[in-house]
Design brief:
elongated, 6 strands, 65% helix, 11 helices
Length: 510
């Protein structure tokens, strides 16, 4: 039977080699242009800003918190990390399945692969040589293999990955707690800026006017020089105090806008609060009761427990690797070789492998892994003690901040009374106007201290909530809009301010 001969021409082989060589040598660094990089980021930020919608103004602290949790980039990174870990868990589960592999190929040789043979007894070579393979050959196979040892190891690795998903969920909880704590501090300072900034600017303008009048009286010699200088000193000190207050006010709103992922110059309005009615949150639980809540809810403690679990699974994985590996495999083979008696056939086999060096190194490795598990356990205990301390510190810090707020409130009432008395008896002369202006500045400063003290009380309250590990939202839900998030946060804040520390979200992090 006439056989078709396949020949790979030397010129074709050289062309293929030259193409591969030139392709591999033409790769050079391609830096991103500065303008391209800048314009890309600007466009992306503009698209993000358009996707954000502010709630109906003025915004409450719950609505601002919802905006932060919905649009803050750091929180979105945590959310994506958790989603990525969940995807890796699905991959780890699939790795426990048997491996299914398919191969196909084509082989060409330049010369006929002929072979000869020699008789071992006589040493006579057979003539002529024989051919058993075509010059062009297609092959293919489909194989299934399952390693029992790899299945056991991948089982423990999948459980470890499941714990990593839970660890990232606890980290996201911690990120939420930290963000809301920052929101509390920034929100109430921004409220103070919203209420006081314009009034401070007006008072500074009045100070400038009176300062000009004092300098004019000095130039005209209408007042004694020492009296004039003392008034200038007083008014300049007042101006410096007002400018310091203004600087603090001007920093509050950009900080809050940054947390909401808004441009610093974005205009928005905030709701005020009953700052001047002396209403403060309640703490109905004593520190010992708060300890129990914190030990059950704190994300750091739950993360430490999951890490201890993974350390224990590492020990089990090391023990599983001591056993021999048993692999079962079967395959279907195909060849286009015209000399073969059968173009396709099936194979099945079993193979046992054992790395004997594991028996030497395993005891030391297992001992190290057990020490690591014990280390994780001790870290968890040390962290639990730190959490207990944080709860007590947060409790007493809130009590101190509450007293500071009530004292600031009383001082502001006194400054307002002083201002009313001075204003009532003020005359048209410069001395009375300077005294009235200084009293107005002192009243503004005292009012600013009330806002700052209230913000400090809210911040210490947020730190207490964080030390308890309370969740204001249900973490298991995704794709929740700002309005629904705001409702959940509002419900949680109302319950917490009454002294009932039950999280609206799932404090177990599920």
């Amino acid at each position: 039977m006439l056989k078709r001969r396949y020949r790979l021409k030397p010129g074709a082989a050289g062309a293929i080699f030259l193409f591969v060589f030139l392709s591999s040598s033409c790769v050079t660094p391609d830096p991103i242009a500065v303008e391209e990089h800048r314009s890309s980021l600007v466009e992306e930020l503009e698209r993000m800003e358009k996707r954000q919608k502010l709630p109906q103004e003025p915004m409450s602290i719950a609505e601002v918190s919802a905006m932060v949790l919905k649009y803050n980039l750091d929180h979105r990174v945590r959310l994506m990390e958790e989603a990525l870990a969940a995807g890796e868990l699905e991959i780890a589960r699939l790795e426990r399945l048997p491996s299914l592999a398919s191969n196909a190929g084509y082989t060409a040789v330049s010369d006929v692969q002929s072979t000869g043979s020699e008789n071992l007894q006589t040493g006579v070579e057979s003539e002529p040589n024989s051919v058993s393979q075509d010059q062009g050959l297609y092959t293919g196979d489909l194989s299934v293999a399952w390693n029992v040892l790899d299945f056991g190891v991948s089982f423990y690795q999948a459980r470890q990955q499941a714990n990593r998903v839970l660890i990232l969920r606890e980290r996201r909880r911690k990120a939420i707690h930290t963000l809301l704590q920052e929101v509390r501090a920034a929100y109430w300072r921004a409220v103070g800026a919203q209420e006081l900034q314009q009034r401070v600017l007006q008072t500074i303008a009045e100070v400038e006017t009176i300062l000009e009048q004092i300098e004019k009286a000095r130039d005209e010699g209408l007042q004694p020089p020492l009296q004039n200088l003392m008034r200038q000193k007083t008014i300049l000190r007042t101006k410096a105090q007002l400018q310091a207050i203004l600087r603090n006010l001007q920093l509050a709103r950009p900080k809050l806008a940054g947390l909401m992922n808004l441009p610093p110059g974005k205009s928005f309005e905030l709701q005020g609060a009953e700052l001047f009615e002396g209403k403060v949150p309640e703490l109905r639980s004593d520190p010992s009761e708060l300890e129990e809540i914190a030990l059950g809810n704190r994300p750091e403690l739950r993360q430490a427990r999951y890490e201890e679990r993974n350390a224990g699974l590492e020990v089990r994985t090391a023990l599983a690797r001591l056993f021999p590996g048993l692999e079962l495999n079967t395959s279907y083979q195909y060849t286009s070789n015209s000399y073969a008696a059968h173009s396709n056939w099936g194979e099945a086999g079993i193979r046992l492998s054992w790395n004997l060096m594991n028996l030497v190194s395993a005891p030391k490795r297992i001992r190290q892994l057990k020490m690591r598990r014990e280390l994780q356990h001790q870290r968890g205990l040390a962290l639990a003690m730190a959490v207990v301390s944080q709860v007590h510190i947060g409790y007493h810090r809130f009590e101190t901040a509450r007293e500071k707020y009530l004292q600031a409130l009383r001082r502001w009432e006194i400054e307002r009374s002083i201002l009313r008395h001075i204003t009532d008896r003020a005359e048209s002369d410069t001395a009375s106007r300077v005294e009235a202006l200084c009293a107005a500045a002192d009243a503004l400063k005292a009012e600013m201290e009330v806002y700052n003290a209230y913000a400090g009380m809210e911040m210490s309250l947020g730190m207490l909530y964080t030390s308890l590990g309370l969740d204001p939202i249900a973490l298991g839900e995704t794709g929740v809009d700002v309005d629904e998030l705001s409702q959940q946060i509002t419900q949680s804040f109302v319950v917490w301010r009454r002294g009932s520390f039950r999280a609206n979200g799932d404090s177990n992090g599920s």
